What we know:
The protein is of the alpha/beta class. It has two domains: 9-237, TIM Barrel (Alpha-Beta Barrel), CATH 3.20.20.70; 255-327, no CATH class. Helices cover 41% and strands 13% of the residues. The chain contains 14 helices and eight strands. It has helices spanning 9-12, 29-38, 51-54, 59-62, 84-96, 111-114, 126-140, 158-166, 193-201, 216-226, 255-273, 283-289, 296-302, 309-327, and strands spanning 17-20, 44-50, 75-80, 101-106, 145-150, 172-176, 206-210, 230-233. An eight-stranded parallel β-sheet has the order 1-8-7-6-5-4-3-2. Helix 8 links the parallel strand 5 (145-150) and strand 6 (172-176). Helix 2 runs antiparallel to helix 11. The longest helix is centred in the C-terminal third of the chain and has 19 residues, at 255-273. It is globular, with a radius of gyration of 20 Å. It starts with 8 loop residues before the first helix and ends with a helix. Mean pLDDT is 96; it is low at 327-331. It binds flavin mononucleotide. Flavin mononucleotide binds next to strand 2.
Amino acid sequence: xxxxxxxxxxxxxxxxxxxxxxxxxxxxxxxxxxxxxxxxxxxxxxxxxxxxxxxxxxxxxxxxxxxxxxxxxxxxxxxxxxxxxxxxxxxxxxxxxxxxxxxxxxxxxxxxxxxxxxxxxxxxxxxxxxxxxxxxxxxxxxxxxxxxxxxxxxxxxxxxxxxxxxxxxxxxxxxxxxxxxxxxxxxxxxxxxxxxxxxxxxxxxxxxxxxxxxxxxxxxxxxxxxxxxxxxxxxxxxxxxxxxxxxxxxxxxxxxxxxxxxxxxxxxxxxxxxxxxxxxxxxxxxxxxxxxxxxxxxxxxxxxxxxxxxxxxxxxxxxxxxxxxxxxxxx
Length: 331
Ligand SMILES: Cc1cc2nc3c(=O)[nH]c(=O)nc-3n(C[C@H](O)[C@H](O)[C@H](O)COP(=O)(O)O)c2cc1C
């Protein structure tokens, strides 16, 4: 007999759900802090973390991925792997670390991940997928367990795959609306989601969808058209931690706000990661913030070789002197 689904925080957050997606090397604890401060989504996820790594002597090296701040809650740890016993152990560890939920990655298409049978490869081994879910649920205790996946491996098999997942006790499923084979090379297949919505409606499991949503207006439209329980957004957050704040648009953020965000984010990054993560990871963020004002292109070039928050500040001072305060007002 099917056991009761543990919903945890998923029961308490508003519906429809607006979730911040996990993005490796992007949504780390520093950026998530910025997001929580400037436009808090209903739920956030860590970057994916290897269960095998967490269950090995290498665990201390992975702890930088598991940092979070209280203001992020609810915060879900995302795990990848292919060994049920390591999901069980990692779930126990997630409880120790006081995460609000556990998400299983069944969608990553990257070869280094799929070649071991993890990520999207689990779509091809559905019974192992179920064992993994059961092991994670067993280790999770009162924490809810969810899955983020794709709508097929080589071709779209959304109904079959979602039906299979719904036979477990998942609190939520997020569908990235592309197949593994499609990577990120085609438009997300929003036209297919209704099949999954119908199946999930008969269960306690929440269904979220993800792919190509640029702003909350687009997200609202898809929620209305599809009847989905929620959406998850990823790349739209680049340079725009205000994404989930309904009172803000990309155009409404002034150059001053962007420059201060660059400094604040850089300082946070250094404070949180010290020497554990290379400052080079920050460059894509800094370049993404620098947009929409006079001289933004030049500022992006200036950010290409920064090595510390002090470098960022020095370049911004140089930029202000070069362009004058008026010329960097938003345009
Ligand atoms: C740089 C990058 C890193 C990603 N890392 C993860 C990850 O760790 N876990 C995961 O489930 N998905 C990951 N994804 C996929 C996103 O969460 C999301 O499913 C995908 O980008 C589609 O959403 P979007 O069109 O809103 O960007 C990543 C995507 C990008 C671009």
